[in-house]
Design the sequence.
């Protein structure tokens, strides 16, 4: 699992900086909206539902405008939609008719494994998009070290790689004043909720997970239970923070579907009535831009991966200019004439053009082809190299500066963990109460 990413959103809340994306409901929820479903009324205010209706996929046969109108009407009658406090006297005279307080910021929760060197695929597919989201959302970005140990790893390097990942997050543009950064294992609710969900998740659901099957073949008899059950940990990562939308690529959609199934199963098993709010909110899929999927330099049909034994298959964010030039020069190409996105028989051509489009800010395939479509590989590769070096150099300089100040990184991670723990404990307590546990606070005379 190369990346775990979770985003909250609602109809009418669209950031142009996030690019052109579509919201696709999964499983059994492709239906017309029924109103806003919120958290139980005794939960703290940060978990009140958004005052905006959820975006519904065009597959539901309703336009955004139709969905918004119908859902807004239902939401207005919901007791869980935050309403402006009543005013009296002079304040009432000054109040604007129908004025509402601004809705809470929707929450983004995302993460990347720290093991290995973070590469261009991690950056373009996840971290670069987080920087766009941090202004619009309540953003919490996680270093998922618990996921990293589901496959063989170097224990002597894990702690250093975890701190280095924090430096990379910040170097790529994550602002700790706008978003919190924390280490997954520093929030114990992740593992505790995983166990609770494990106990109600059918084994058959996990046996169908494609990524487990693929990785299990590579590990053979040494495959561990962690790899088998890590999709439940991923579901806990999502559900713990009440995510509404999850930005996923096609390779991660199955995991999101599992998270939705688990949330629905929990709500059904423990009889959580919609009229009283949900303990587990079912997340929706936010499909990422095609340009966010970066393929390997040695195989245009496989994702760029930290686990590949061939370092030449990826551009690491810390690669020097000389290393980048050497990797681009040796990357796999084809014998085709001209450069184009549209030929499915030329995956390496499409991948290199996609990378060029991303690092130069040209998101339009037509614009890129107009600029470089007539070039030969020998002419295009130096141009791609220059674009990569120019884009990554400021990130590398900032990374070196941050790495020289570990005390600052430690402080960022401590504060992020404190904020994450506060939010996670609310969900965990709600889950435990629904499952019938006695909590320590219940024993107080």
Sequence:
């Amino acid at each position: 699992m190369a990346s775990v990413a979770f985003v909250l959103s609602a109809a009418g809340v669209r950031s142009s900086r996030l690019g052109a994306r579509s919201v696709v409901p999964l499983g059994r929820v492709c239906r017309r909206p029924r109103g806003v479903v919120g958290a139980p009324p005794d939960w703290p205010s940060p978990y009140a539902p958004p005052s905006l209706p959820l975006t519904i996929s065009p597959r539901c046969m309703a336009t955004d405008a139709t969905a918004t109108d119908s859902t807004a009407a239902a939401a207005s009658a919901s007791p869980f939609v935050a309403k402006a406090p009543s005013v009296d006297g002079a304040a009432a005279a000054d109040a604007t008719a129908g004025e509402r307080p601004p809705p809470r910021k929707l929450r983004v929760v995302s993460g990347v494994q720290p093991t290995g060197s973070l590469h261009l695929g991690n950056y373009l597919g996840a971290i670069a998009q987080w920087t766009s989201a941090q202004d619009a959302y309540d953003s919490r970005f996680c270093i998922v070290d618990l996921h990293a140990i589901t496959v063989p790893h170097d224990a002597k390097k894990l702690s250093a790689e975890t701190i280095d990942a924090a430096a990379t997050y910040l170097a790529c543009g994550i602002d700790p004043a706008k978003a919190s950064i924390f280490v997954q294992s520093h929030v114990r609710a992740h593992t505790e909720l995983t166990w609770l969900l494990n106990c109600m998740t059918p084994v058959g659901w996990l046996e169908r997970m494609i990524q487990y099957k693929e990785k299990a073949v590579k590990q053979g008899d040494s495959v561990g239970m962690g790899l088998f059950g890590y999709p439940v940990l991923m579901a806990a990562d999502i559900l713990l923070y009440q995510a509404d939308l999850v930005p996923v690529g096609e390779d991660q959609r199955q995991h999101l579907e599992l998270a939705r199934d688990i949330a629905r199963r929990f709500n059904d098993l423990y009889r959580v009535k919609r009229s009283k709010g949900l303990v587990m909110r079912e997340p929706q899929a936010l499909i990422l831009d095609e340009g966010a999927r970066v393929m390997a330099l040695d195989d245009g049909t496989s994702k760029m991966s930290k686990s590949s034994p061939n370092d030449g298959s990826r551009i690491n964010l810390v690669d020097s200019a000389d290393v980048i030039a050497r990797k681009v020069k040796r990357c796999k190409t084809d014998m085709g004439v001209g450069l184009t996105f549209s030929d499915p028989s030329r995956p390496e051509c499409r991948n290199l053009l996609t990378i060029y489009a991303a690092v130069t800010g040209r998101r339009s395939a037509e614009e890129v082809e107009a600029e470089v479509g007539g070039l030969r590989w020998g002419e295009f590769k130096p141009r791609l190299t220059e674009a990569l070096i120019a884009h990554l150099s400021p990130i590398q300089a900032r990374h070196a500066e941050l790495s020289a100040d570990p005390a600052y990184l430690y402080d960022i991670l401590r504060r992020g963990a404190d904020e994450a723990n506060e939010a996670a404990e609310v969900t965990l307590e709600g889950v435990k109460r629904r499952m019938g546990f006695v909590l320590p606070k219940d024993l107080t005379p």
User: Anything to note?
Assistant: The two ends are 46 Å apart (CA to CA). The chain has a mean pLDDT of 78.
